[in-house]
Design goal:
By secondary structure, this protein is α/β, with parallel strands linked by helices. The protein is built from 5 helices and 5 strands; from the N terminus they run βββαβαβααα.
Length: 155
């Protein structure tokens, strides 16, 4: 099952590949607005990137980090915009989607539900992966969690 996993934010971490594979392709893409961009431009750019990524990689499942609590209003609004765009694109392309909670991802990846960013990165390094940053590390962890959760369905 070709799976795309996302850590939704202005700097979106992503990982994708067939969950039968040993390792996903991964990285981070920055949707930060330029000086004169309107507030919604980041979502237009994200939507175009997401559609292209899904189509080019024949994505069959999309999994993202389901954030339930933000410390800042702006971060919450931005996450909500990316979440809405993700759901809309997935629905329009007929790609099933789901979310894993932050705590369950961290616990799955590091054994601690309150793991810090450096612990998420270190787990990637320990597994021979070299993520661009903590956003990519989170997406990688989500990909492996999807592999663990849905990989048995592929048998």
């Amino acid at each position: 099952m070709k799976t795309l996993t996302l850590d939704l934010a202005t700097k979106t971490g992503f990982a994708h590949g067939d969950i039968k594979a040993q390792r996903p392709r991964h990285g981070t893409i920055n949707f930060e607005n330029k000086t004169w961009d309107g507030a919604g431009v980041r979502f237009i750019k994200y939507r175009a990137w997401l559609i292209k990524t899904i189509k080019e990689n024949d994505i069959e499942l999309l999994v993202f980090e389901g954030v339930r609590n933000h410390t800042g209003t702006t971060a919450s609004h931005i996450y909500g915009g990316f979440l809405c765009s993700t759901q809309e694109v997935s629905e329009s392309l007929g790609v099933p989607y789901t979310a894993f909670g932050v705590t369950e991802i961290k616990k799955f990846w590091t054994g601690k539900g309150n793991a810090k960013k450096d612990a998420m990165l270190q787990e990637c390094y320990d597994r021979g992966l070299d993520p661009a940053d903590d956003n990519a590390a989170d997406a990688i962890a989500i990909w492996y969690m999807a592999k663990s959760t849905y990989g048995e369905l592929e048998s």
